[in-house]
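ok trying this again, last paste got cut off
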Amino acid sequence: ALMVLMAMSAAVTPMVGQNYGALKFERVQQSVNWCYRFSLIYGLAVAALMAGAAGFIAGAFTDNADAIATTKMHMRIVPISYIALGCAMSVNSAFNAIGKPMPAMFISMTRTILVYAPLAFLFANLFGLVGVFAAACTANFIAGGVGTAWFRMVFRAKMADHQQTVEASA
C-alpha cells in the first residue's frame, strides 16, 4: 500500500522543482495540493479495504491464529494514517525540490525518533501491542500535519520574497 505513496512522492519532486525553477508558483501549489487530495482519497480507500479484508489477507499468509490477530489489528489501525503519511512524504519531496532539504529531514527524523519511538514505548506499556500501532498512527498524523503546515509557511514566504523582488525591480 505504501509503494503508491512512495511513487507519488518521487513524482512530485521533478514537478515541483521544474515549476519552482520556472517561477510558476501556482503550479507548485497545484502539484502539492493534488498530492494532498490523492493522499486523502487513497488513504481512505486503502484503510477501508484493509479493514474489510484484514482477515482474508492475513489468513492467506498464515494459519497461526496469533499472527492473524496481530495482522488484523495492524490493518484496522495504521492504514487510516496513510492519509497523513502521504502528505508528509509529498511535502518532504517538495521541500527537497525547492532547495530546502533540512525541513524534510527534520520531519522524517522527528516522526521516527522523537514521536514514534517514545510513543511506541509508552503506549506499548499502557495498551500492549495495540499501543505500538496507535503510536505509528499518531506519528504519521503528526508528521503529516506539521509537514503540511511547515511547507505552506515556507512556500508562502518564498512567494512573498519573489513578489518583493519583482516589485523592487519594477
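PB: full thing came through this time. The longest helix spans residues 129-169.
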